[in-house]
Amino acid sequence: xxxxxxxxxxxxxxxxxxxxTPIAKIVFFTLVICSVASVGVIIERAIVLAKALxxxxxxxxxxxxxFKDQSWVESREEILSSQREVAPLFSLLRAGMAYWDxxxxxxxxxxxxxxxxxxxxxxxxxxxxxxxxxxxxxxxxNISSVAPFIGLxxxxxxxxxxxxxxxxxxxxxxxxxxxxxxxxxxxxxxxxFAAIPAVIAYNFFTEKINLLITMLEEAALENIYFxxxxxxxxxxxxDDKNE
Length: 243
What we know:
Shape: rod-shaped
Low-confidence stretches: 1-8, 236-243
Helix content: over 70%
Strand content: under 5%
Distance between the termini: 81 Å
Largest sheet: none
Number of domains: 1
Mean pLDDT: 78
Number of strands: 0
């Protein structure tokens, strides 16, 4: 252990970390990695969620425009070429419409059965959309759960080594006690510093994603019926099939 009191009499955190034991350094380094990973996931998920919300608003307005302007053929092509990561709502509609086309191609003519199967196809795609939106969230969950225990491990090790040093030197000097306790408390603080933002972000993103998934499901199921009915009335699938 080394003296950790700065010239002013305060605690020099940098010197504590630099002069800590190898085990403490490993704990500190691990917690720093957890903090960096947590920040990276938070930024990445914030960008993905913002894009998904923006896309949801755009696709809703686009659908309203389609019904208003009767631009069905163009919108159908746009929906069928959509990607899950770019336009989740269009992706849900695409899944339903593509399955509708498959049923028609197989010669299915029972409308009620077709509608139920299309809804099931939309719900399957919804699960994939949810998985995409929740991607990397388990990292935040793991950090929020594990980081405090890593910090606690560093705390216990620091206290044990402090008592070991005291027993070997046969005294309880201020520097010896302060050094060991500082290692322990800094490990605890770093564990909490890594865990608290992670658990807050995880809960925030989970709530927002669940809300978005609900809105996507309602919008998709509300519009898919009218779209397949329009598809049926205008015979679009017949044209595609003949092509």
